[in-house]
Amino acid sequence: MRDLATKLxxxxxxxxxxxxxxxxxxxxxxxxxxxxxxxxGGKRPADFMIEGGxxxxxxxxxxxxxxxxxxxxx
Length: 74
What we know:
With 74 residues, this protein is mostly helical. The chain contains 3 helices and no strands.
C-alpha cells in the first residue's frame, strides 16, 4: 500500500511538472513519445518508469525539475 501511495505521489508530481512545461495536450503525450535524452535511451518515459518502478519515477521527476528549475523533494 505504501508503494502505491508513493507511485501516485510521484505521478502527480511528474504531471504537475509537465503541465508547467507544456500545455495540457503535450503534457499528456510527452510520456508516450520516444525520448532521445541519455536518461531514456530512446525509450518512452512511460516505459522507462514502468520498467524501473519508483527509482525511475524519481529520476524522471528530477529530469523534469532540471528542465524547469524547481526543487524536488521525496
